[in-house]
Write a structure and sequence with these properties.
The chain is an alpha/beta fold. It contains eleven helices and ten strands. The relative contact order is 0.13. The mean pLDDT is 96. The chain binds flavin-adenine dinucleotide. The site of flavin-adenine dinucleotide (FAD) has 22 residues, from strand 5, helix 5, helix 6 and strand 8.
């Protein structure tokens, strides 16, 4: 079922979460062990991230180094199929522009259509780790906007080289939004302008980058509504669980901790103390979002299902 249908069929805020495919070599059982405890909160869908290749240098044994392309977390599509099969709920694969030509994108979408996947989160992807600037693959989409346009055309039966009006896809298309602005955007206004273009091109729902200050989400939603973005805007939140997160999350995701949170985190000396602060903050954030009737709360688990469960227990 489409995310938009799940939302319109639900009287209350929906619980959902996002998982990462396991590192190469790890089994899917580890993933199930993280999902199982969250099933009691009845998520109607689970997002599965997509991880592109990165470059590593391997010793050749003769003093030379060889540049090799490595994908550490493959398996997004297979995991979606496994989730749909095991839990009988929807799985939402993330699909990125980076590393895909338009032909490869089309083939990936055809695979998803055959699998019965109804929703796809369409993203540009970050620059490859060793590069400063995002570079599209040859013949690939440069922005999420272009990917959404390609998906929208497929939804109308227009494939890259064929028109098959009898067999269009019917994807519900998700896109990313940034309550604190995307880090490359010149300012909030240009970022919102491009978000509006993504919506006009066919996006059906927005999932936000994580944020720790609900006022930033509420202000973002207000600005979106003012420029005519009327689709659901799903807030994404992340429990802080380790001392490492204190510097990693702001650096990697370009988000700020509000003073009340940073003051509490500054006092923490152990991971357990951080986990407690993160749990209390997450509960308060989720409660306020739910009280404001957000359609869904999307939890970034990043492999920390237990912390998400602690928050969900107090809120759902
Ligand atoms: P875009 O919407 O293309 O925007 C990128 C930048 O370009 C922005 O600064 C925007 O303002 C600007 N821009 C947009 N359109 C245009 C245009 N037409 N002309 C000029 N400028 C433009 N990454 C992954 O690799 N895998 C994942 O699974 C993944 N999941 C994510 C899930 C969510 C909910 C979010 C919020 C992010 C996720 N990301 C993921 C990260 C995402 O890929 C990065 O944030 C990436 O840098 C931008 O992706 P986007 O889809 O927002 O890009």
């Amino acid at each position: 079922m489409k995310v938009t249908e799940h939302i319109s069929n639900s009287k209350d805020t929906i619980f959902s979460f996002e998982i990462l495919p396991p590192l190469k070599g790890k089994g899917i059982e580890d993933l199930y062990a993280g999902i199982d405890p969250l099933m009691e909160f009845n998520p109607p869908f689970i997002n599965v991230t997509y991880h592109r290749e990165e470059y590593q240098y391997k010793e050749m044994g003769n003093g030379l180094l060889k540049k090799v392309s490595v994908r550490k977390r493959p398996g997004t599509v297979g995991i979606c199929a496994a989730i749909m099969n095991k839990y009988k709920i929807d799985a939402i694969p993330h699909l990125i522009c980076g590393g895909f030509s338009k032909e490869e994108t089309e083939s990936a979408l055809i695979d998803l259509k055959f699998l019965g996947v109804d929703n796809v989160l369409a993203l540009r992807g970050d620059p490859i780790k060793s590069e400063q600037i995002f570079t599209p693959a040859q013949g690939g989409n440069a922005y999420a906007l272009d990917l959404i346009k390609q998906m929208d055309e497929m939804n109308q039966g227009q494939y890259l080289h064929e028109e098959t009006k009898n067999n269009p896809s019917n994807f519900c298309i998700g896109t990313a939004g940034y309550p604190e602005k995307h880090f490359e955007a010149m300012n909030m206004s240009t970022d919102l302008k491009y978000l509006k273009m993504k919506v006009d091109a066919g996006a059906d729902f927005i999932v936000t980058q994580m944020f720790f200050d609900n006022s930033k989400y509420f202000s973002f939603v207000k600005k979106c509504r003012e420029i005519g973005i009327n689709i659901p805007i799903i807030p994404g939140i992340k429990p802080i669980t380790t001392l490492k997160h204190i510097s990693f999350l702001p650096k990697f995701f370009h988000v700020d901790f509000p003073d009340a949170l940073s003051n509490e985190l500054s006092k923490c000396k152990t991971n357990d103390q951080v986990k407690q602060v993160g749990k209390e903050w997450g509960i308060n954030q989720a409660k306020e979002l739910k009280d404001n009737n957000v359609p869904v709360i999307h939890f970034y688990t990043m492999g920390k299902g237990e912390s998400v469960k602690n928050i969900a227990k107090a809120v759902f």
